[in-house]
Design brief:
Elements: H1 8-16, E1 32-34, H2 39-49, E2 54-56, E3 69-71, H3 85-95, E4 107-113, E5 116-121, E6 128-130, H4 133-137
Parallel strand pairs: 1-2
Antiparallel strand pairs: 3-6, 4-5, 5-6
Length: about 140
């Protein structure tokens, strides 16, 4: 139940003007964070990397030709927002060597792209499109 009565900590703050909660660093520049997922993960990545704390996956190292492929928000932003519970599990399984995507595992879709209206989409990563199946394999 709410009350108009201030607690003692509030009175301490008002009289001193100082927040009395001790600041304790939890993370160091040696820590590495796995920031994959939603726009929330993107904001966490930005905050941590601005403090020189490493985050993985390192999307900036994905190389592709933008005239041949669209890779989510790369290179404009170091972020890929294709994750749901299934794809997160799939990515972890792939990193552990428990799953490999077949070379012919793609869908043909119609989408406006620099190379024309026909694209080949990665079925597990909604924002990845390529000019041909061969390009999507890379």
């Amino acid at each position: 139940m709410a009350s108009n009565k201030s607690n003692t900590k509030y009175a301490d703050f008002v009289s001193s003007g100082t927040i009395t909660i001790r600041k304790t660093s939890i993370f160091t520049s040696d820590d590495i964070f796995f920031t994959m997922g939603s726009c929330f993960a993107q904001e966490i990545r930005r905050a941590l990397t601005s403090r020189q704390i490493a985050c993985v996956p390192s999307y900036r190292y994905i190389s592709f030709d933008p005239t041949q492929a669209i890779v989510d928000e790369l290179p404009r932003q170091e972020h890929m927002n294709f994750y749901n519970t299934f794809t997160v599990r799939l990515q972890v399984e792939q990193m552990l060597g428990l799953w490999d995507q077949a070379h012919d595992d793609w869908w043909q879709v119609k989408k406006r792209a620099p190379w024309g209206p026909i694209c080949f989409q990665d079925p597990y990563r909604r924002g990845i499109f390529a000019k041909s199946p061969q390009v999507s394999e890379r």
